Please model this.
Amino acid sequence: MDKDTQQTVTGRFAPSPTGRMHFGNIFAAVLSWLSVHSRHGRWVLRIEDLDPQRSKYEYARQIEDDLAWLGIEADEGGTADRGTHGPYSQSRRGEFYERTLRRLEELGLVYGCTCTRADIMATQAPHMSDGRVVYSGKCRPAACPPFGSSPGPGARRLYVPDRDIIFTDGICGPQHVNLARHCGDFVLRRADGAWAYQLAVVADDAAMGITEVMRGRDLLLSAAQQIYLFGLQGLKAPEYVHIPLVCNAAGQRLSKRDSSESMAELRHRYTPEAILGRVGYCAGLLDRNEECSLCDLLKVYNRDKISRDEAVYV
Ligand code: GLU
Ligand code: ZN
Model:
């Protein structure tokens, strides 16, 4: 990593191009942009198109177009692969993931898992009311495989320790997460060869010199998995900053089904300044919901003002 990269605050927006963005996506994009630009940093746009069935190039182009409509352009990355840390689409970054997996395998911390989904559901701890699946460790070898030995067939799983990962989130404060209880040994690469989100995101955040990850609160616990992966490789993890989720009036997190909050509809009904004002108001940066420019938001931006609530409502 060069000196420049180390010193510059570097944030990223990492959308999955599986549909049109909605107000919740814009909320995260704008706040992460403000956060780094309020400190003259660099904002990277990374296309998280690991899922070939659901990801489309046209959606990635549309994301860039919706951001441009708001006056936001990435300093680095995007579909044009601008910058020196590319490619910026995960579907073309397999060699980085191979290298990361190999490093973890060399530590003797990876094993093959041949469980089917049914096996995993049948053996998991009974009461995960939030829908999490905690792997029971069925295929975990009794002892760590010797250093450098190759894991058996199947998905690649990573040993996790039965102790707390401790970190301080930039908004949510101190966190203690026991990975053994939260997720168990987790998958780095699926049996069909597909890369897991956790491995890809860490390999990319490291390679792209990301110093700050600002994103929705739904990924707060994932940060512990990611910090663990950084630590195993002897790398410094970025600062994690989890912002509230945007919910509709019924209290549900916005999704692609909330068509009235889709950028297709919002661009039709509002000006860019109205949308930016709404981001500022929902986040807690503005006292009133009124039109404002990106420049105005930059002037009032202050992380301490961002709501610490789990959700904000449109
Ligand atoms: N690609 C993920 C998503 O769209 C975001 C991952 C991240 O920010 O770490 O939900
Ligand atoms: Zn297994």
About this structure: Residues 8-91+244-313 form a domain with the Rossmann fold fold (CATH 3.40.50.620). Residues 14-16, 48, 201, 215, 219 surround glutamic acid (ligand 1) (CB under 6 Å). The chain has two domains: 8-91+244-313, 92-199.
